[in-house]
Design goal:
3-stranded antiparallel β-sheet; two-stranded antiparallel sheet; 16 helices; Lysozyme; globular; mainly alpha; about 5% strand
């Protein structure tokens, strides 16, 4: 009997923890969601209720949201995550394995191959790490227990339910990131519905197993968000003018909602010049990324830089995509020398147990 007491206590503690997790979500908020799903999208209330009853509040999702790298890391720390030789090598291999698809996408959408490859590299290392969290749990937790973005994630949960019906998959089985992003391209549900395309024309839109669909969908996303073909993304500039300097109207802090507003001509008139000449009519904004020694790298972010931030609102993210893409492009050009061939095999996308229709 004495040996059973610790087991009973353990089971009691486990049951209490599960109960606390279940009670973390306000039943009234869940019912309001069900009602809205019926009113806005005509979904059967009982059907939605049955699905949500299978969702679970996950504290680790909230913990992950609160320690995002974009939020807590300095520029040099964030870049160090992605600017690794392994990620560059795998990007070169992915490009080589999918050269024709990338060239086709560049012709049709105007998005350079290195940008598409870099997004896949930053997001999931070319499909290797697409996330192990149930998307249903992620969106459920964030919709009902993450107040500052509850409205956004509530809409994404609705979009996920609609996507499951359209794509004919079991929404309780899909896994992704802690924020509910899916596939090698890490599309959230609304993006999957509105931007993902069947680029290989096999009757399915699959961002897990089809490199063609990954490539075409990323290119389509950027194009529809305003990508300008042949225009640069960013340019390094001479040591910058910080916004705190007296008499300077320019600023170095870029918020997620900011758009480039300064013409290159106006910037030049104020002494802000790119380190190398660039040809563009796009407006720009000023960027400063902290180095390990406390100094800064100064950049101009142009319109296409802003477009990349529509994929992820952080300027750090956009700069990581730009710099990784350039590193991959440069290494691929260098490895075109027969005396220096690529050594890594093509990266294979992660398998998934279902296919989108």
């Amino acid at each position: 009997m004495n040996r059973l007491i610790p087991l009973i206590l353990l089971l009691s503690t486990y049951a209490s923890a599960n109960l606390a997790a279940d009670l973390a979500t306000d039943p009234a908020a869940v019912q309001a969601f069900i009602d809205k799903m019926h009113q806005q999208h005509g979904k059967d209330k009982a059907e939605v209720a049955r699905l949500l009853a299978q969702a679970r509040h996950q504290q680790e999702i909230l913990d992950s949201m609160n320690r995002r790298a974009e939020k807590h890391k300095a520029g040099h720390e964030y870049m160090a995550i992605f600017m690794t030789q392994s990620r560059i090598d795998k990007g070169v291999a992915f490009w080589s394995a999918n050269r024709e698809l990338l060239e086709k996408a560049e012709r049709e959408f105007g998005v350079p191959a290195q940008v598409i490859v870099a997004i896949l590299g930053v997001e999931t290392i070319y499909g290797e790490r697409t996330g192990s969290m149930r998307v249903l749990d992620a969106l459920y937790t964030l919709a009902f227990n993450y107040p500052k973005r509850a409205e956004f994630f509530s809409k994404e949960l609705m979009q996920f339910i609609l996507l499951a019906e359209e794509a004919n998959f079991d929404p309780t089985q899909v896994t992704g990131s802690y924020a509910g992003a899916m596939g090698a391209a890490q599309f959230i549900s609304s993006s999957y519905r509105h931007y993902a395309i069947d680029y290989d024309k096999d009757g399915h839109t699959d961002l897990w197993k089809s490199p063609a669909d990954m490539i075409g969908s990323i290119a389509n996303y950027l194009k529809l968000n305003g990508w300008q073909a042949q225009d640069p993304v960013a340019a390094k500039r001479h040591q910058g003018l910080m916004f705190a300097e007296p008499g300077r109207a320019l600023k170095e802090v870029v918020l997620p909602t900011d758009k480039p507003q300064h013409s290159l001509k106006d910037l030049a008139a104020q002494g802000v010049l790119p380190a190398s000449p660039i040809q563009s009519q796009s407006p720009a904004y000023l960027l400063a990324f902290e180095r390990a020694d406390g100094s800064f790298d100064y950049w101009l972010g142009l319109h296409n830089f802003y477009v990349i931030t529509r994929y992820n609102r952080s300027p750090l993210y956009a700069m990581a995509v730009y710099q990784l893409g350039e590193a991959i492009r440069q290494q691929r050009q260098a490895s075109a020398d027969p005396a220096n061939p690529p050594t890594n095999p093509p990266a294979k996308p992660k398998e998934t147990p279902f296919v989108f229709h």
